[in-house]
Design goal:
The chain is an alpha/beta fold. The protein contains 18 helices and twelve strands. The chain has an eight-stranded mixed beta sheet with strand order 5-2-1-6-7-8-11-12, with helices on both faces. Strand 6 (78-81), helix 4 (88-95) and strand 7 form a beta-alpha-beta unit. The longest helix is centred in the middle third of the chain and has 21 residues, at 230-250.
Length: 373
């Protein structure tokens, strides 16, 4: 018996959004694709499909390509948000008036604190609605757009940890999505997906430490393979240690960068550099061509800042992460600590570690103040 198709909305027409939309449609599901600017997805709208090449080869026929959020998510079951984290606030604000209690909203990924901030915005705008917000630790694919309507899928994770907010709803989401994306595996809470955000380590730190090389070569080197040398790796591991200390203080279950590479890609080695050499999906990925890159303007304010601010909130020092935030702020002439995702944006300021854990698991604080229905 053929399984019933699910109605998906994919929010974002970039690399990840086009890959997800193509893949889900290729599997036989109904897919609406939304992008803020229609011009970016005009060709997809006209031809009606997205082609995939690489480790997955095929064509996904798109039901609708639109820049109208209400139209994009109407009568959909699962909304896959695949936009840079610095767009989460805008997307949550646009989506809030139109969502329903029956929908699952999946952040691919949430970076750090994404689900918490997304939910906080929706409840502030539309307090009567209670959709299930799900956070993925990372994007399912390593992918790049070849041309509009054609995406290269360079790699696919073996496992992507996901959690719902509140976590008591994670199992129902897994049961809904498992036959479609079996790589999604349940983890304890959004604290695990957020504070095991390995992109916070892999993206901004090598970019900033290779800033001269990027400017002199226009990024003509392999980001993960050539940009992460033993000395760069030392700094990454120190920042990774600070990230794990914050996660531990929250009661989350931290996984190290080295453990993540093995778990996600079966890439093992005695050193970070050795393990990275074994990730096939990283082989073709060059460094950013300029320092005006999401590896800084997304990952610093929405990955590193919330880790550092949560550390401040809990009394955990993060000097290495703070130094990376400081250097990024100098490079871009912006105060990323001021503009980034803070504890108050996540709606959990004033809560201690135990109350935060109760919030993300059960939807309420220990003081019996209900936060999530």
């Amino acid at each position: 018996m053929q399984k019933k198709a699910i109605n998906f909305a994919v929010i974002g027409g970039g690399h990840g959004g086009q890959a997800l939309a193509a893949y889900l449609a290729y599997l036989g599901h109904n897919v609406n694709l939304y992008n803020r600017t229609f011009e970016r997805i005009k060709k997809i709208s006209e031809q009606g499909y997205i082609d995939m090449e690489g480790i997955i080869s095929g064509r996904g026929y798109i039901n609708l390509a639109t820049d109208d959020m209400e139209e994009a998510i109407r009568e959909t079951h699962i909304i896959m948000v695949a936009v840079p984290a610095n767009a989460h606030r805008h997307i949550a604000t646009l989506m809030a008036p139109y969502i329903s209690d029956e929908q699952y909203i999946v952040l691919n990924p949430g970076r750090t604190g994404g689900a918490l901030e997304f939910y906080n915005i929706i409840k502030n705008i539309n307090p009567e609605k209670n959709p299930c917000i799900v956070e993925a630790q990372t994007l399912l694919f390593a992918c790049r757009i070849v041309e509009e309507g054609k995406v290269a899928v360079l790699g696919k994770k073996n496992n992507v940890k996901v959690a719902a907010l509140p976590a008591v709803r994670t199992r129902e989401f897994i049961e809904k999505i498992h036959r479609i994306i079996p790589e999604f595996v349940q983890t304890h809470s959004v604290l695990d997906t957020s504070f095991n955000n390995i992109g916070a380590i892999l993206h901004p730190i090598p970019t900033i430490l290779n800033c001269g090389r990027i400017e002199s070569t226009n990024g003509n080197f392999l980001h993960y393979i050539e940009g992460i040398t033993p000395s760069v790796a030392k700094i990454m591991l120190k920042a990774d240690y600070e990230r794990m200390k914050v996660a531990e203080a929250l009661g989350a279950k931290p996984i190290s960068l080295m453990e993540w590479l093995g778990y996600t890609y079966n890439a093992y080695g005695k050193t970070v550099c050795e393990a990275l050499q074994k990730v096939q999906g990283y082989m073709g990925i060059k460094a950013p061509s300029t320092l005006d890159t999401r590896y800084i303007f997304e990952d610093v304010p929405h990955s590193l800042v919330p880790i550092a601010d949560m550390g401040r909130h809990l009394g955990i020092e993060t000097p290495t992460i703070n130094s990376i935030i400081h250097m990024a702020s100098i490079i871009h002439d912006k105060d990323y600590y001021k503009t980034g995702r803070r504890v108050e944006d996540m709606g959990i300021d004033g809560l201690d570690a135990d109350e935060i854990m109760n919030y993300v698991i059960n939807g309420e604080t220990t003081s019996s103040k209900e936060v999530v229905a």
